[in-house]
Amino acid sequence: MIQKVYENIYLNSVRLPNTPLKSLNSYIITDANRALIIDSGFNTQISSEDFFSGIKELGIDIKNTDLFLTHLHADHSGLASMFQRESSGKVYSSINDASYVTKMIQNSFSDLFVMSLKLFGMEASEDFFSSHPAVSYCPDSAIDFTYVKPNDIIKIADFELNVISVPGHTPDHISLYDSNKKIYFSGDHILDSISPNIAFWGDEHPDMLGEYLSSLDKTSALDIDIIFPSHRNIIKDYKRRIAEIKAHHFERLSEVLGLLDENGSKATVIEIASAMHWDYRAESFDAFPNAQKWFACSEAMAHLEHLKSIGKISSSDIQGIRYYFYNP
Fold this sequence. Notes:
By secondary structure, the protein is an alpha/beta fold. 34% of the residues lie in helices and 23% in strands. The protein has ten helices and 15 strands. The strands form three sheets. A seven-stranded mixed β-sheet has the order 1-2-3-4-5-6-7. The protein has a five-stranded mixed β-sheet with strand order 8-9-10-11-12, with no helix packed on it. It has a three-stranded antiparallel β-sheet with strand order 13-15-14. A hairpin with a 2-residue loop joins β1 and β2. α7 runs antiparallel to α8 and α8 crosses α10. The termini are far apart. It comes from Acetoanaerobium noterae.
């Protein structure tokens, strides 16, 4: 379903099956001779029908259309291969997130997941991820990426879109900002009504939550009238929303620290995650689908690693399992 949200900007609502997110806000910016699409949807029939029918509804020539990926997740990158087969346009991405997309396509992305399961204190098995979106709905063939870096400018219609680096939700998440129009395409960096998942991305990214909080501060310093997020509602009071998201994570940090204390000052990720409050509806943590269980554990670990980075707790890997210690 196409909705005009700004002059020359349209929101194409792309359904996301089998996920609590329900849909993606794929934005289409139109010009007389060219178009730019921001994010795509899952590599599924339902998502592809919505994605390509939106392009057709606007009468856009897909051959003269480019695709910008804010980050690697399959609900944003899943249709990039299919798009590139139909279009002669570019597929923009940050270089590091593009490398993860390539790993998804090559079926090697699950190595990160399996490694994480062991650290969490769970049984390490590739079968655990058979229903994970990164495995089920990722692009189906190699992508010829056009890499962008911070402060690159993409011009379309009368917009000058500045590439902004906002790591946190993923290691190399990027957004687009027009300082003259005061509009900001946030991807999953800032969302309304739901908090972006902040995950553990391996020890090469030791404090993703810290990076995310810094990225929020960077965005808060910009002059923005409208944020176009990738899910849920358009955001106008962005400073309020940023403050709410930061408060949520500070509450999470207090919750995690309290649970670690209650657990005798020593616990694994799975022990902490299973005791945390989650909005996902299920009878118990054990009843979570595997993908949601991994997201929960990975977010719990991101908070634990941030507490470690600021000196509140310590950790030790014992037989491949990471134990966290609270010494008040």
